[in-house]
Write a structure and sequence with these properties.
alpha/beta, 3-stranded parallel β-sheet, two-stranded parallel sheet
Length: 159
């Protein structure tokens, strides 16, 4: 970071099986960034398919433990479900309640959506107080202009 003149960086866990060949847990990110919190900003993540009790309140309580340990955001959110899947929507609600911005990845395998991003639009409308940070080939292709499902498939094959 010093060689690149970077003052701070966000460290993202990868907990969904589709997100990486190796999981990088929130607990690991929190532990490894603890000595360097002036420069390394930890995020937390929970796969939407994770089992927890208590509905939304239970998820808020789970995420609050991470916030209490220093997590400043949620992500990288890369589960293999639709972006507007009901389980994702619960995560968006919990993050909104805790004021955790969500960094989400969107492509043909993770947080899937149709051209024009109607699922994301649904989430944005339902959770206007939640901050969403988008990235990934599906996101960039969709915001670049008129994109079709065939365009997305070609973009993803080229990666």
């Amino acid at each position: 970071m010093d060689n690149s003149n970077l003052a701070q960086a966000v460290v993202l866990p990868l907990v969904s099986p589709e997100s990486s060949s190796y999981s990088l847990t929130t607990d690991f990110v929190l532990a490894e960034t603890r000595p360097h919190r002036d420069r390394l900003i930890p995020f937390c993540s929970v796969d939407p398919r994770t089992s927890y009790s208590g509905g939304l309140r239970g998820l808020v309580d789970m995420l609050k433990k991470y916030v209490d340990q220093g997590a400043k955001g949620f992500g990288e959110h890369k589960p293999g479900v639709r972006i507007d899947d009901a389980r994702n929507m619960t995560i968006y609600a919990a993050c909104g309640e805790l004021k955790l911005p969500i960094l989400f990845h969107l492509d043909e395998q993770r947080n899937t959506d149709a051209p024009g991003l109607p699922g994301l639009e649904k989430a944005l409308k339902e959770f206007p107080a939640t901050q969403f940070i988008g990235h990934g080939p599906g996101w960039w292709a969709s915001i670049s202009g008129a994109v079709t499902q065939a365009d997305l498939a070609v973009i993803l094959m080229v990666q």
